[in-house]
Write a structure and sequence with these properties.
Rossmann fold, thiamine pyrophosphate, Transketo_C/PFOR_II
Length: 336
C-alpha cells in the first residue's frame, strides 16, 4: 500500500494558507489573533498516547563464541577493505548485537564476509545510502551496533543523514572503501578524496585510517563500543603488513615507523600513503627522514606528544595523503 499525502501549508488560517513567502516568519499580533480564531480559538488540548514498552536489550540472534580476530603475517599483502570484512564477520560471531548494512557493494566493501556468515543480521539496502544511514540510526536506537559499508565516495550522498545522526547523538559505525587515488582503474568518480575532511568535520566523530590488515582488525574491534560517529577509511589496493598481530592501536595514538639521530624532516602519513612514505624513506634515508603513522584523523583525538617531539627535533614536517587541498590542514596536524 502506498499513501500519497499533499501538504497544504498554513491549512485553516486563510491569511497564510497555501501562500508562499511565510516560511520562518512570524505573524503580527493582529493576524496571529485572527489565525488562532480560525483554527478554533485559544485552547489547552492535551493528548495522551500509549507509550511503547521498553525494548530493553536487543534480541539475541544466534549463539556467540569468543572473539578471534583475523591476523596476518608481516610482509603479507592484504587490502584493508578485506581485513575490515573479515574482522567484522569475526566480531559478529562474538556479538549478537552487531548488525551490518551495505549499499549493494558488499563484494567490494567486503561486508560480504559478514553477510555470508550472519545473513540474519545483514541488511542489503541497495543504492539508497541515505536510507541506509537512517536505518542504522533506528537500529542503534534499539540497542544494536550497526556497521554501514559503502564506497567512501558514495557515502557523501548520505552526509546530511550522518550529520543529523551526530546531532541526534546516535552511535553508528561507517566504513568507506575505495578511498584515494590508488584505485586508478575504477576512475575518479569512485575515488573518495573529500571523506577525511567531511567526516572529521562531523561533531562527535572519530576518523580512522589503518595502513595494514592487523591494524585494521584491531581498530574495527574498538569501533563496536565507541560512541558517536566512527568512520573507517579502507582501500582496495593490497598493502604489505608492517605490524605484528600482537601490536595494539589505541584510538588517538600514533606510531613512529622509522627514525634516526640524523633526521631533518618528519613525514606524517596514514593508510596507503604511509607505504608510499616508506618507499620514499628507503630512497632518502641518507638525508635524514622521520616517518610517523597517524592512525586517527580527528584532530581532537590525536596524541601530539610524539609529533611535538619530532617537530622540535626536525623543525620541518611533510603531511602525505590523498585528499583535495584544504586550507589550514597543516595547522590541524601541527598546531603551534
Amino acid at each position: 500500500m502506498v499513501i500519497i499525502a499533499r501538504t497544504v501549508k498554513g491549512k485553516g488560517a486563510s491569511v497564510v494558507e497555501n501562500q508562499s513567502g511565510w516560511h520562518g516568519k512570524n505573524l503580527d499580533e493582529e493576524k496571529a489573533k485572527a489565525a488562532i480564531e480560525e483554527l478554533g480559538g485559544q485552547r489547552n488540548i492535551q493528548i495522551s498516547v500509549q507509550k511503547p514498552e521498553d525494548a530493553g536489550e536487543p534480541a539475541t540472534i544466534g549463539e556467540t563464541q569468543p572473539l578471534e580476530l583475523p591476523s596476518y603475517d608481516e610482509g603479507e599483502k592484504v587490502a584493508t577493505r578485506t581485513a575490515y570484512g573479515k574482522a567484522l564477520a569475526a566480531i559478529g560471531a562474538s556479538r549478537s548485537d552487531v548488525v551490518a548494512l551495505d549499499g549493494e557493494v558488499s563484494n567490494s566493501t567486503r561486508a560480504k564476509f559478514f553477510a555470508k556468515t550472519h545473513s540474519d543480521r545483514f541488511f542489503e539496502m541497495f543504492i539508497a545510502e541515505q536510507q541506509m544511514v537512517g536505518a542504522a540510526m533506528g537500529l542503534q536506537a534499539r540497542h544494536y551496533k550497526p556497521f554501514v559499508s559503502s564506497f567512501g565516495a558514495f557515502l557523501s550522498r548520505a552526509y546530511d543523514f550522518v550529520r543529523m545522526a551526530a546531532i541526534s547523538r546516535a552511535n553508528i559505525k561507517l566504513s568507506g572503501s575505495h578511498a584515494g587515488i590508488s584505485i586508478g582503474q575504477d576512475g575518479p568518480s569512485q575515488m573518495a578524496l573529500e571523506d577525511l575532511a567531511s567526516m572529521r568535520a562531523v561533531w562527535s566523530s572519530t576518523v580512522l585510517y589503518p595502513c595494514d590488515g592487523n591494524q585494521t582488525a584491531q581498530l574495527v574491534s574498538q569501533m563496536v563500543d565507541r560512541d558517536g560517529i566512527v568512520y573507517l577509511r579502507t582501500t582496495r589496493m593490497k598493502t604489505p603488513v608492517i605490524y605484528e598481530k600482537e601490536e595494539e592501536f589505541p584510538i588517538g595514538g600514533s606510531k613512529v615507523i622509522r627514525s634516526s639521530d640524523r633526521d631533518q624532516v618528519t613525514v606524517i602519513g596514514a593508510g596507503v600513503t604511509l607505504h608510499e612514505a616508506l618507499k620514499a624513506y628507503d630512497r632518502l634515508k641518507q638525508e635524514g627522514v622521520f616517518i610517523y603513522d597517524q592512525v586517527s584523523k580527528q584532530a581532537t583525538e590525536i596524541n601530539f606528544t610524539k609529533l611535538y617531539a619530532c617537530l622540535n627535533r626536525n623543525q620541518r614536517a611533510k603531511v602525505v595523503n590523498f585528499y583535495r587541498p584544504l586550507k589550514g590542514k597543516i595547522a590541524l596536524h601541527c598546531p603551534r
